[in-house]
Specification:
Number of domains: 2
CATH superfamily of the largest domain: Glycogen Phosphorylase B
Strand content: 15-25%
Radius of gyration: 23 Å
Helix content: 40-55%
Strand order of the largest sheet: 3-4-5-2-1-6-7-11-12
CATH architecture of the largest domain: 3-Layer(aba) Sandwich
Distance between the termini: 9 Å
Shape: elongated
Largest sheet: 9 strands, mixed
Mean pLDDT: 96
Length: about 475
Amino acid sequence: MASILMAAAEGLPFVKTGGLADVIGSLPAALAEMGHEVKVVLPLYKKIAEKNFQDLTYCASYTVNINYREVPVTIYSQTVGKVAYFFVQHQGYFERDALYGYLDDGERFAYFQKAVIEMLNQLNYWPNIIHCHDWQTGMIPCMVKETHSSDSRYANIKFVYTIHNLLFQGNFGPEMTDSCLGLPYYLLDNGNIRFDGGVSFMKSGILYADKITTVSPTYSQEILTPQYGEHMEAVLNMRRYDLWGIVNGIDTAVWNPNTDPALPYHYNKITMSKGKAQDKAALQKELGLEVNPHVMLVGVVSRLTYQKGFYLMLEKFQELANAPIQLAILGTGEDAIQNAFRDMENQHKGKVCFYRGYNEDLAHRIYAGSDLFLMPSLFEPCGLSQLCSLRYGTLPLVRETGGLKDTVTPYNEFDKTGNGFSFSNYNADEMMNTLNNAINVYYNRPEDWKILQMNAMNKDVSWQNSAEVYNRLYDTLM
């Protein structure tokens, strides 16, 4: 068994903006259950400091060089279950209202990565593997290999780098090379860290890690092409034989319709019909929709961005409004999408509800109370929402891309297999045809619908299978 340090920019149960946090909240625990020693290191954000500081234990203080000055670092820790979490504290860099989106993000996460590398020395903690996640930790393998190679304690560490979303690459100006990263300029000149004229944290992670993973088998193949490669496909093709696609899971203790504290009524596979009907009625009432057990309720829980495919819905605005369905939409994002959904609600009160913002408990109730869950994504590295909807017996309707293709099996009317509905091309007509097919099955083949619901709830969406694949990956490095 291995000693593994996960380095990431966010993670549950402490802080979350996206799916990365869910992975960091679940994968380490699953690996620890298999016998690995797993630790996680995160920045100590304002949200964590406000909520958890009294529970943290002081570990060490030291400095790292950023912008040619020594900047203090303080390390704290807390253990959750079998996983120890380290936190890198710097008030100026991390105790802000948001996690990302600042002009000095490159400097902030260069500091974080330098702090993590020196933390090993300060704590005399030498993992077998450092598993880095997304651009915010992509420079760690490079900095260790280029500046610590003469120290056998560092030289013996192996690196895994996981791409959660290739769209966000951590690309910054070339001046970062020396001032923040402390790297020689020849690494910029020879192309090792250079991308689009500057420094790319993600490119560095891809080139310097011993193994690269991404969050579904289909996405691992898609990103080798110009359509999905975000201009990084040539770099990825250089490492294609070290690239693994491993689909994410979800925490099935948190996402459990039989115990979920956010639900007014609980159910399992046996009591699903009654329980879902009760949750549906409660959700309709909560959202101001007509309380009607017979109408199909379609749920959406998402960031409202072009990536998520909502412009297909806007193209079919009138057809959706006229369809024999109700819509429950929860999310926030681009103004054009938000305004369109608000208009749809205003024009169709009792049939459409748009909740702008994010509400975790309401999200759980939408997963449980909906009949169908809509995810028409342009691209989707893995996707977690379809896994949650499957767990709650709510049939996902997805576009066949990335992890959506890997986890949702389309309905086959002849042998009654499948756990949802899917369409192939990013096309509003295809989406609408698939939705109309789902509507037809819901109203005219209710027995088939129940079979699909049972198939959905029988799908293993836990971390167990994925953790076993990661285990095999680590074995190749050991």
